[in-house]
Structure formats: structure tokens, C-alpha cells
Amino acid sequence: MSRSLPPTLPTILALALVAGCAAPPAPAPEVAAAPALPGKVIWTDGHGDLAVTTAGAAACPTTSTAEVSAALARTNAVRREAGLAPLTANPVLQRVAEKHACDMARRGLMTHAGTSTTGPLARAKQEGYRPRVISENIAAGAPGRFTLTGTLEQWALSPKHRANITIAQMQDFGIGHAVAADGTATFWTAVYATKGH
């Protein structure tokens, strides 16, 4: 699904839902390096990999306590509107989200596949979190527009991203961001999960 909005808001979003028992997805296809992005807003609710900018050393900060609190508050507000229990910040999922945002920024590629993982399920397991169910929202775009607040609002307004946020059995949450080497894009990852027994 895509729609055009004012050209002053370059926006690209993507999501994937992965259940703990799902088979791993097929390997991602090769992606051309850093195409010029269109001058309009583009919303995508599920797509292939998107080259957003050039690859290189990225700025990969640790998400601050204030950022985690703000993200959790907005995420839980969406869940409350749906009559669901709130999520709790989880330090392991925090690392999972931060590492994936950094990996995307280093590659200049918005994708659910990691450099050495097929998706969020594999990344969570690598960090020692054994999910029963896990989902992930990702975003990438101009740093001035892709603030924490703006990204969370876009996920809340996007039906399929909101669907990830409002999976009833989710309990834990993590969020991370990174800035591409050339400074033209900020990459975001949010992970929602519940542990298996």
C-alpha cells in the first residue's frame, strides 16, 4: 500500500511479524546500493529490502532511559486504546533493537534480515531471549523527521505497524536507533515479544 503526502516529509516504514514457531524466511534478494529516494512521502506496510543510503560507519548510540520511557509510554498508550496490558522495557530486547538499528544503518539498508540473521526471532535468541512470539517494526528516513516521537506516531497510525504493537500476548519491549554514515538517514527498530515457557 502506498500513498503520496507532502514532499516535505520523506518517510519510509516497514514491518514484519514473526511467530516463534514460524519457519525462517527465504534469504533476502540482492539490493542495489543507495538509490535516490522519491521526493514524496511513501508508506509501506510490508515490502522487500529498501536501500536508503550508502553503507559505512554508523553512529550507534545506546538508547537513553528517557527515550525508552517515552517510547514505552507511547507504545502502551496504543495498547491501552486496544484494551491490552502494558509492555515492560526489557534490557535484552533493548540490545536486540539497538544492534539491528545499527546493522541497518551500517548497511544503509532498511530490512528485517540482519547481516547474519534472518529476522528478530534469530536475533533475540542470539542474545539469550527465547521468544514464544516476537514482532518488529522498523523505519528509516531523514533525521529531522525521523525523531523518536515522529516514528512512534507513524507506527501508531499505520494499520500493520499498529497490529504488531497490539498483539495481545506481548509482554516485553525494546527500541533502538542509529544514524547512517553520511548522516542522511536515521534507522529505528522496535521489538515486541513474550518469552516461551
From TrEMBL:
<dbReference type="Pfam" id="PF00188">
    <property type="entry name" value="CAP"/>
</dbReference>
<feature type="domain" description="SCP">
    <location>
        <begin position="72"/>
        <end position="192"/>
    </location>
</feature>
<dbReference type="InterPro" id="IPR014044">
    <property type="entry name" value="CAP_dom"/>
</dbReference>
<protein>
    <submittedName>
        <fullName>CAP domain-containing protein</fullName>
    </submittedName>
</protein>
<feature type="signal peptide">
    <location>
        <begin position="1"/>
        <end position="28"/>
    </location>
</feature>
<keyword id="KW-0732">Signal</keyword>
<dbReference type="InterPro" id="IPR035940">
    <property type="entry name" value="CAP_sf"/>
</dbReference>
